[in-house]
Design brief:
By secondary structure, the chain is of the alpha/beta class. It folds into two domains: 282 residues, FAD/NAD(P)-binding domain (3-Layer(bba) Sandwich); 162 residues, Elongation Factor Tu (Ef-tu), domain 3. Helices cover 32% and strands 16% of the residues. The chain has 13 helices and 16 strands. A six-stranded antiparallel sheet has the order 10-11-12-13-9-14. A five-stranded parallel sheet has the order 6-2-1-7-16, covered by helices on one side. Strand 1, helix 1 and strand 2 form a beta-alpha-beta unit. Helix 1 packs parallel to helix 10 and helix 2 packs parallel to helix 13. The longest helix is centred in the C-terminal third of the chain and has 26 residues. 49% of the residues are buried.
C-alpha cells in the first residue's frame, strides 16, 4: 500500500506540494496552524497568503524568472495556474490580486478529494514513521515549537535574515497630476504609476529617510549571537530596507529601487532624477504597493517620509512597510537534491524554509517536493530535476552552495550551467546566450518531466 503524505504549511509551497501529490493518487493530510495560531506577519488564515508584494516576477521571454515559470507551467503547477488566472496589470511582470489568488487556491484544495485539511499546529516530527512521508513547508515564520523540533532532528542551528513587506497606498489618494504611467523601457503595457523626483526633491527625501526613527527589533526577531557572529541585524541582501540602502551612499537608491532608467516622463521627454514605482495590488485597482520600498521605520515616520514622494503628499496608507525575521535551514549540509533530509529521508523540506527565496521559487520548490513525495509514497525512487533546468539549478544551489556563505537565492542565470567556453567565445551577445540557455533548459526539463509522469502512471 502507498504511504500517506503529510504536508505541514498552508503558504505557497505546502498547497502546491499537496495538490501535486494528490494528482498521483496519493492521500494527503495538509496542516495549517492558522487561525489557531497566527504569525507576526500574516494578516489572514487563508491558504497561499502573499505576505510581502503581489509580484511573481518577470514574464519577459528568456529571463530566468520566465524560464522557471515556463517549466512550472509545463509541469502543471496548480498555484501558478491560479496566479495566471488572478493576474492584474503589471507591465512585463506577473502580479496577482492577492485575495482572489488565495480564494482560488482554497477552492482547488477543497475540490481535491485526496486532500484532508487540518487546522492545527504541528509540534513534533516522527522521523521513525515508516508509513508517512512528511513535507515540511511551514515557511520562514515556522512556529517556535516546530522550529525547535526541526533543530532537534537536524542537530543544526537555524540561520536567519530579515525579510520585508512594502507599503500599500489607497489609489484614490494619489495625485495623478504629478505622476505618470509607464513601464521600464516600454516593455509590456504602461501599468506602473511613476512618481518622479527632481534632484532637490530627492535630496530632501534622502535626508529625511536616513534620520527617520526605526522600529526596535522585537524579542521574537532577535537572533542568537552565535548564529550571526554577533550582528544585531542580518538582512538578506535581496530585501534590504530602503533606509539601510540609503545609508550606503547618496546615489545607492537611484541605482536600486528608485532607478529612473527607461522611465521617460511624457511631460518632460526625459528620465527623472529618481523615481518611485507603484504597482497595482488588486483587480479593482483601488490600491498600489510601493515597489521595493520595504522598510523598518515606525509607522508615524513612514507616513511623514513617504508623503515626501511626489504625488503621495496626501496619500492614505492602507498598510505600512515592515521587516520581519525569516528562518531557513542550512540546506547544503542537510538536504539531498530530492529535498529529503540526509539523516531522515522520510522528511522533506520545501519552500523558503529550504533556502529558496521568492514566491515563484517557493511554489516551484513545493511542486518538486510533491512530485518527489508521490514517488516515495508509491515505492519509487525520485529522480532530481535536471541540472540544466531552472528548477534543477535552483535546487542544486541550495544543496551544494558553499557552506560558510550560504544565503537564500532567487532564480538567476548565475545558478544555471553556463554555456561551453567555445560557445561563449562565439556568442558575445548576452541575450542570445540566455536564449540558448533557456532553450536547452526546456529540452532537458521536458525529457525529465515525461519520464517522471510516465513512472507515476
Amino acid at each position: 500500500m502507498a504511504k500517506r503524505i503529510r504536508v505541514i504549511g498552508g503558504g505557497l509551497a505546502g498547497p502546491e506540494a499537496a495538490l501535486q501529490a494528490a494528482k498521483f493518487g496519493c492521500s494527503v493530510d495538509l496542516y495549517e496552524m492558522r487561525p489557531t495560531r497566527s504569525t507576526e506577519a500574516h494578516q489572514t488564515s487563508d491558504f497561499a497568503e502573499l505576505v510581502c508584494s503581489n509580484s511573481l516576477k518577470s514574464e519577459s521571454e528568456n529571463t530566468a524568472p520566465w524560464l522557471l515559470k515556463q517549466e512550472m507551467r509545463r509541469a502543471g503547477s496548480v498555484l501558478l495556474a491560479e496566479a495566471d488566472a488572478s493576474a492584474v496589470p503589471a507591465g512585463h511582470a506577473l502580479a496577482v490580486d492577492r485575495v482572489e489568488f488565495s480564494r482560488r487556491v482554497a477552492e482547488r484544495i477543497a475540490a481535491e478529494p485526496m486532500i484532508t485539511v487540518h487546522r492545527e499546529e504541528v509540534t513534533s516530527l516522527d522521523a521513525d514513521d515508516s508509513e508517512t512521508i512528511t513535507i515540511l513547508a511551514s515557511g520562514p515564520l515556522t512556529s517556535p515549537a516546530l522550529a525547535a523540533e526541526l533543530q532537534r532532528l537536524t542537530g543544526s542551528g537555524h540561520l536567519a535574515f530579515y525579510d520585508s513587506i512594502s507599503p500599500i497606498v489607497d489609489a484614490g489618494t494619489i495625485d495623478m497630476e504629478k505622476v505618470y504611467m509607464a513601464a521600464r523601457w516600454d516593455k509590456g503595457t504602461a501599468d506602473y504609476i511613476n512618481c518622479p523626483f527632481t534632484k532637490e526633491e530627492y535630496d530632501r527625501f534622502l535626508d529625511a529617510l536616513t534620520v527617520a526613527e526605526t522600529v526596535p527589533a522585537k524579542e521574537w526577531e532577535q537572533i542568537p549571537a552565535a548564529e550571526v557572529e554577533k550582528q544585531p541585524l542580518h538582512y538578506f541582501e535581496g530585501c534590504l530596507p530602503i533606509e539601510e540602502t540609503a545609508r550606503r551612499g547618496r546615489d545607492t537608491l537611484r541605482f536600486g529601487p528608485m532607478k529612473p532608467a527607461g522611465l521617460t516622463n511624457p511631460r518632460t521627454g526625459r528620465w527623472p532624477y529618481a523615481v518611485v514605482q507603484l504597482r497595482q495590488e488588486n483587480l479593482r485597482a483601488d490600491s498600489y504597493n510601493l515597489v521595493g520600498f520595504q522598510n523598518h521605520l515606525k509607522f508615524g515616520e513612514q507616513q511623514r517620509v513617504l508623503r515626501m514622494i511626489p504625488g503621495l503628499e496626501n496619500a492614505t496608507f492602507l498598510r505600512y512597510g515592515q521587516i520581519h525575521r525569516n528562518t531557513y535551514i542550512h540546506a547544503p549540509s542537510l538536504l539531498t537534491e530530492t529535498l529529503q533530509l540526509r539523516a531522515h529521508p522520510g522528511i522533506m523540506i520545501a519552500g523558503q524554509l529550504s533556502g529558496v527565496e521568492g514566491y515563484t521559487e517557493s511554489i516551484a520548490s513545493g511542486m518538486l517536493a510533491g512530485l518527489y513525495a508521490a514517488a516515495l509514497a508509491q515505492g519509487r525512487t525520485p529522480q532530481p530535476a535536471p541540472r540544466l533546468s531552472a528548477n534543477g539549478s535552483l535546487t542544486h544551489y541550495i544543496t551544494h552552495a558553499e557552506a560558510k556563505r550560504f544565503q537564500p537565492a532567487n532564480i538567476t542565470f548565475d545558478l544555471l550551467l553556463p554555456l561551453e567556453e567555445s560557445l561563449r567565445k562565439k556568442i558575445r551577445d548576452k541575450k542570445e546566450r540566455h536564449r540558448i540557455q533557456c532553450e536547452r533548459a526546456l529540452v532537458a526539463w521536458d525529457e525529465w518531466l515525461a519520464q517522471t509522469l510516465a513512472a507515476g502512471q
